[in-house]
Amino acid sequence: MSNDDKPLINRRDFVKKSAIASSFLIVPRHVLGGSAHVAPSDKVNIAGVGAGGRGRANIRACAHENIYALCDIDDNEIAQTLKEDWATTFARGAKTYRDYREMLENEPGLDALIISTPDHMHAPIAAAAMDLGKHLYIEKPLCHTVAEARYLARRASETNIVSQMGNQGHAQEGGRLINEWVADGVLGTVQEVHCWTNRPVWPQGINRPEGSDPIPSTIDWNLWLGAAPHRPYLAERYHGFNWRGWMDFGTGVVGDMGAHIIDHPYWALDLGLPIKVSASSSRFGANFETFPVASKIHFEFPAKSDRPPVKMTWYDGGLLPERPEILEQGRMMGDNDGGVLIVGGKNTLMHGVYGREPCLIPEIKHLGYQQPAQTMARSPGIHQEWIDAIKDRSKMTTSHFEYSGRLSETMLLGNIATVRASENKVLEYDGENMRFTNDDGANSYLDKDYRAGFGLS
C-alpha cells in the first residue's frame, strides 16, 4: 500500500480510543489532577515531533525530563538524534513513530509535545494534541495562518494546557531590560520602530521546479506534506531547510525571524494587533509559490492607554532602515543577523536579534543612563519556563499562545500585505472580527484549506 493510499485516522475516533485506553490504566497520573497533570516531583513525559534541526535542539533542552517518544517522517533524523551523547542516557527508551496521529493514539501516558516541524503542520499537530489535553511547546512561528493563530490561542485556553512558543530571546536578559527601560520612560514618547534581518538565507522568489525524484525509503513524503496540497518529491528542494521560502510550507522571512526581532518592541510597547498594513517587495515566485527575495512592510498600531499610535517598519532581503545620524561613524546597526531601532522623543534604543545587547545611542547617552531597578522576574529559559509551569500551575510562561498568537498574527498579516502589494492599497484590518475591511481578496489569505486527515477538526 502506498503512502497516499494509507487509511487516514479520524481525529474524533482516535480521541475516543485514547480515552478508552486510558480507562484501563490503574490511576494514570495524567488524569489525577486534570488534563496532563504532573506532580512537581515527577518528570514530564515529553514527545518530540520533528526530531531534526531545531527540533533536536528543543528536545535536548528538555532532556532532563523524560523523553518518552520521538516522531519524525524521516527515520534518519530520529536515528541521528538517538546517536547524540545526551540521548543515549535521556532518550534511550523513547518510542519512535513517523505519524503523530498514531503516536497520540497509542501513547496515552504522554504529558506534553514539542512541535518542531515545518510551519504548515504546527496547528494540525497541536490541535490533535490539545484535544487530548497535552501541554505544548511549538517552535516559532506559532503557525501558518492568521486563523490558526486565533484557533491555537482559543483552544489552549479551553483545554487549560500549558503553552509556549519557542522564541528563545523572549526569555533572555535583553528582553527584560528593553521592557524595563521603555517603562522607565528613558525613550520618551515612542511612535516609530524599525526592524530588519539579513534573511532569507534560503531560496525565495523562484518558481516551482519540474520533475520528481524517487522517494527515499526512510522518508514518508505523504506525512511530510501533511496539510499541504500534494506535489512530487524533489531532493533538497523542499525537505530540509529550504521549505521556509515556499508558501505551502513556510511563512517566509518575517515568519522565521519576526518572533526574534519584532517580539521585543512588540512586547515592551504592548502593541497588540495593527489596524493598517502595507508592503512593497521584489518579485515572488510564479503564482505566488515562494515569498519574495526582499520586502518592506509597514504596520500601524493604534493608540493604547497613555501611548500614542506607533508605526513599525520591517525590512528583509538586504534592505535596511536609514542610518540614524546619532549613531557613531563605523558602528554597526544591530548585529550581523539584524536588529531593531525603537525611536523615542528623548532617546533611541538599539538592539540585535533575540534582544541582544540593548543600548541607547549614541554611546555617551547609554553610559550616562542610570538604569532602573529590576521590575520583571527573570526567566530560567524558554524551555524551563514551560516545564516549570507544567509542574506548578501557579507559574506562567511568557510566550504563551495568547501572547505569541497575537505576535504571530501580526507577522502573518505582513505576509498578506506583501502578496497584495500590487493592489496598491493600505490594508485596513479589523482585528476584533479578523478581517480586512477594504480588500475582500486579502481576506482569502487569512485561512486555508487542509488536505483530508490533517485539519484542525
How many domains? 2
CATH uppermost class of the largest domain: Alpha Beta
Fraction of residues in helix: 25-40%
**DSSP strand content:** 15-25%
- Low-pLDDT regions: 1-34
Structural class by SSE content? alpha/beta
CATH topology of the largest domain: Dihydrodipicolinate Reductase, domain 2
| Biggest β-sheet: strands ordered side by side in the sheet | 13-12-11-7-10-9-8-14-15
What is the residue-averaged pLDDT? 92
Count of helix runs: 15
Task: Calculate Rg over CA atoms.
Answer: 22 Å
- Counting DSSP E segments of at least 2 residues, the number of strands comes to 15
Major sheet attributes: 9 strands, mixed
Q: In words, what does this structure look like?
A:
This protein is 30% helix and 16% strand. The chain has 457 residues and is of the alpha/beta class. The protein folds into 2 domains: 3-168 and 395-400, Rossmann fold, CATH 3.40.50.720; 171-206 and 219-373 and 405-443, 2-Layer Sandwich (Dihydrodipicolinate Reductase, domain 2). The strands form 2 sheets. The protein has a 9-stranded mixed beta sheet.
Keywords:
alpha/beta; nine-stranded mixed sheet; 2 domains; 30% helix; disordered N terminus; 457 residues; Dihydrodipicolinate Reductase, domain 2; six-stranded parallel sheet; 15 helices; Rossmann fold
Write the layout of secondary structure elements.
Blueprint: H1 11-23, E1 45-49, H2 54-61, E2 66-71, H3 75-83, H4 85-90, E3 95-97, H5 100-106, E4 112-115, H6 122-131, E5 135-139, H7 146-159, E6 163-166, H8 173-184, E7 190-197, H9 221-225, H10 252-261, H11 263-268, E8 276-281, E9 295-301, E10 310-315, E11 338-344, E12 348-351, E13 359-361, H12 363-367, H13 382-391, H14 401-419, E14 427-430, E15 435-436, H15 440-443
Helix pairs in contact: 1-5, 6-7, 7-14, 10-14
